[in-house]
């Protein structure tokens, strides 16, 4: 299974505190900057990333932080969130470069997948069908 980077599915997981905010790009953002999770979901959709999922974390910790548990009424601002993006390695690396300034706030992990999604489909063939 020696597929090239342009067709092999990869998963990019971005871990960051719940309180993380996107950079200020508009006047109104000076009053309240958008949540980093929602901002990254929006830019992933605009970049036509194959799949994006914001995982709900019930318990966990980020590097250098203490354990945190989600509570329905009160959540620690350092509680971890995980945004997972699926696409080709090449497209995910391009996404990371394009948004490098905001991704310096996150702990990123890139997983190269051994098997394509579905019945021997690759991300490239799936994207070609959906256009």
What topology emerges from the helices and strands here?
Layout: E1 9-17, H1 36-46, E2 51-55, E3 59-60, E4 68-69, E5 80-88, H2 89-98, H3 100-103, E6 107-112, H4 123-130
Antiparallel strand pairs: 1-5, 1-6, 2-5, 3-4
Describe the structure.
This protein has 131 residues and is of the alpha+beta class. Helix content is 25%, strand content 25%. The chain is built from 4 helices and 6 strands, in the order βαββββααβα. The strands form 2 sheets. It has a 4-stranded antiparallel sheet. It has a two-stranded antiparallel sheet with strand order 3-4. It starts with 8 loop residues before the first strand and ends with a helix. The relative contact order is 0.29. The mean pLDDT is 80.
Describe the structure in brief.
This protein has helices at 36-46, 89-98, 100-103, 123-130; strands at 9-17, 51-55, 59-60, 68-69, 80-88, 107-112. By secondary structure, it is of the alpha+beta class.
Number of helices: 4
Shape: globular
Q: Determine the oligomeric state from the structure.
A: single chain
The averaged pLDDT comes out at 80
Proportion of residues in extended strands: 25-35%
Model regions low in confidence, pLDDT < 50 over at least 5 residues: none
Order of helices and strands, N to C? EHEEEEHHEH
Strand order of the biggest β-sheet: 2-5-1-6
* Total strand segments: 6
**N-end to C-end Cα span:** 27 Å
Largest sheet: 4 strands, antiparallel
- Rounded to an integer in angstroms, the radius of gyration calculated over CA atoms is 16 Å
**Which structural class do you get from the secondary structure elements?**
alpha+beta
State the share of residues found in helices, binned by percent: 25-40%
């Amino acid at each position: 299974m020696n597929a090239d980077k342009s067709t092999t599915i990869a998963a990019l997981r971005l871990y960051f505190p719940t309180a993380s905010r996107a950079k200020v790009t508009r006047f109104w953002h000076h009053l309240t900057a958008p949540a980093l999770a929602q901002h990254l979901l929006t830019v992933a959709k605009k970049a036509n990333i194959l799949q994006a999922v914001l995982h709900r974390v019930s318990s966990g910790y980020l590097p250098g932080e203490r354990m945190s548990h989600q509570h329905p009424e009160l959540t620690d601002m350092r509680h971890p969130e995980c945004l997972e993006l699926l696409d080709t390695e090449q497209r995910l690396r391009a996404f990371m470069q394009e948004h490098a300034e905001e991704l310096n706030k996150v702990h990123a992990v890139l997983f190269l997948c051994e098997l394509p999604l579905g019945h021997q489909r690759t991300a490239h063939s799936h994207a070609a069908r959906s256009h």
